[in-house]
Amino acid sequence: MTDILMLLAILLPLAGGAILPLCRFKTRHALHGAVLAVLVLEAAAVTALLFSAPSELTLLRMTDALVLALKMDGISRLFLAIAAYGYLLSAIYAFRYLEHSGRETSFFSFFLLSLGALAGMDLAKNLITLYLCFELLTLLSMPLVLHDRTQASIRAALKYLFYSVAGAFLGLCAIFFLAQYATTLDFQTGGALDPARFAGHEGQLRVVIFLGVLGFGAKAGLYPLHGWLPTAHPVAPAPASAILSGIIAKAGVLAILRLIYFSVGPTFLAGTWVQTAWLSLALLTVFMGSMMAYREKVLKKRLAYSTVSQISYVLTGLFLLTPEGMVGGLLHVVFHATIKLCLFMAAGSIIFNTGKTRVDELRGYGKLMPITFWAYTVASLALIGIPPASGFVSKWYLASGALNSGLPVFSWLAPVILLISALLTAGYLLPISIDGFFPGRDFQTPDKRSPEGGWIMWGPIVLLSALTMLLGLFSAPLVSAVRALAATLF
Question: Which of 136, 210, 222, 345 is the most buried (most CB within 10 A)?
Answer without folding.
Answer: 345
